[in-house]
Amino acid sequence: MDINELLEPFVRMLDAAATPAVVRAIEHGGSVDALWQEIAESGFLDALVAEEHGGAGLSLADIEPLIEALGARAVPLPVAETMVARALLASAGVAAPEGPIVLVTSLAQPVPCGLVAHAALVDCGDALMLCEMAALVPQPTGVTNALAARLSGTPDGIRLPRPASGLRAIGAVLRAALIAGAAAQLCDVTTAYASERVQFGKPIGRQQSLQQMLALMAEDMIACRIAAQMGASRGLDVPIATAATAKSTASAAAPRIAATAHAVHGAIGISEEYDLQLLTRRLHEWRMADGSEGYWSQVLGQQRLGSDATSVDWVRQAVFA
Amino acid sequence: MFDTLTLAQLPPEDEALRPAIRAFIEQHIAAIPMDRRARSWQGFSAEFSRALGAAGFLGLTLPKEYGGHGKGPFARFVVVEELLCAGAPVAAHWIADRQSAPLLLNFGTEAQRSKHIPAICRGEQLFCIGMSEPGSGSDLASVRTRADRTGRGWVVNGQKIWTTNAMHSDYMIALVRTSGTSADRQAGLSQLIIDLKAPGVTVRPIVDLTGDAHFAEVFFENVELDQDTLVGAEGEGWKQVVAELAFERSGPERIYSSVVLLDAWIRHLQAVGRSDCAALVGRLTAELATLRAMSIACTARLVAGESPVVEASIVKDRGTGFEQELPVVIGDDLAAHPDEAVSEELYRTLLYVTHIAPSFSLRGGTREILRGIIARGMGLR
User: Fold this and answer.
1) Are A227 and B293 in contact (CB < 8 Å)?
2) Facing residue for B283 by CB, picked from A221, A293, A303
3) Model ipTM over 0.90
4) What are A70-88's pLDDT values in tens digits?
5) pTM of this structure
């Protein structure tokens, strides 16, 4: 399938429904129902569900650009997570609940979009558990405008089989794709701003120092995109090493990308009414969610040290193959 | 932004080349010590290059009618990746195979193609690229070496410097001024094939800080050349060079220059049974994997028939940054364990790469120039 046939209607829907004003309203405590209904009615939530279970039967690689589009718009709902959850539920023969579902891989740290989810798919180590969100007592983190939630309690609900690498590896790939999408949008708006903003009689983007910074930002953005695509290329059975590569690369780049975007924008970039912060706050949240670059580097390094192969051979076999 | 640079796969028919090139490498370089193999694509062996040509691994992307193998850039990626990871001494044929032959194929006359390309594919004609001059480094358009028309061709006067392998090469493809002055910038530049054995050519090797002499200065004093040494159109030299640089900058040699050291360090960690630096190993491994995917994505643009000048700059700038980071962090790790024995070979490999690493972001376009090209691609210039 031509990716644009899939992407264009999705992007059109998001551009109409998830405007920065809508994102802000939800972050300020407004209802997610209207936005969720638009997304649900678009039919994309069952993109990953197999055709025999009534879904579109697409692969994670097919929908990776859609996840980037969600990231680029800072969509304040767990849309990619719900797509994955619905696919796992369908293949286990479990009816999916209506409403947004988050993937939970730890109760120790906040879960993005936890305040706006209706259900959680929890990785219990030996199985997955579908829980109602209320059972995990989602609490605000106290971070301004954040939709992440602290969770507690003992997960209890419907058990289903756990994918081989666990939910954290899948979550890592989703975060990498969200980061890649936000990074692409930040590159666009930051480059545009540098071309418009005049100081010393010329656009600041004409200064070599800014050009060098922005070139590095573009390199990081491309690295995030390709790492995320590599992660997504392996579907929901993503090997740990592939997920680790995707998230380690994207998480390491995320703070650098946010820093450059803010440095170029100057003071206006940190003002609440300017849209930049919607994206940069997400970058930091996704960087930490489901394991930072430090976590995944440790995982990847331990696997690597266990092999006699040369580095490129190992990468070909463990990450690419 | 740069929307076409996306994940690509090496096709199975090109992956299928891997066992044969691996067997060839094993047979030919097993005896070369690690710190020699760390020279990567600066390791020179005319004999190895001729054997590689005889075994059918040169000219992979060139047409069969000129002695090539009619395959695509992905096939070249696979073979080059294996050669670099093994630290095979590929310098002799490197420039001819990577950019001179494709340049002649694209812009050369029929006579030039048949004179040079089959011999390049056999590993028998070695080429160097005459770009930098004493007054022209990053500002390449300011070159002053001149070629003036004579009754039977051209006469060349001037000087090139930092020319890789000039002292081992048979020919140089030189960027020279054929009209106007350096004030005319990119206009009036042309590319000429200069026989380095011609009267009036003097080549002086330059020793680098590692003790190697891989580059040289080349003097031209009334060097007479035939008419048919002009490559492409007179005055189009700049455009041709830019297209050539996309080949020069896009390959995996821009990510793998320090990979022999990386492997040596990991073998050391395994031998001493140390895993306190697993996170560092993992971070470097993730970067290696991401760069490999980026390099394959860039190769896919070549396959699509594009000249990915900006994309190649993105991969090269990030890739050389990685190549340069490796000796720094590995040196820190080894010396952070002062009571742990480090083999002589690993130590020499580390220090060789440490000392030569600055060249990684100079050769083929400096970091700052590449970032300028990327910024232009972003619409900032």
Assistant:
1) yes
2) A293
3) yes
4) 999 999 999 999 999 999 9
5) 0.96
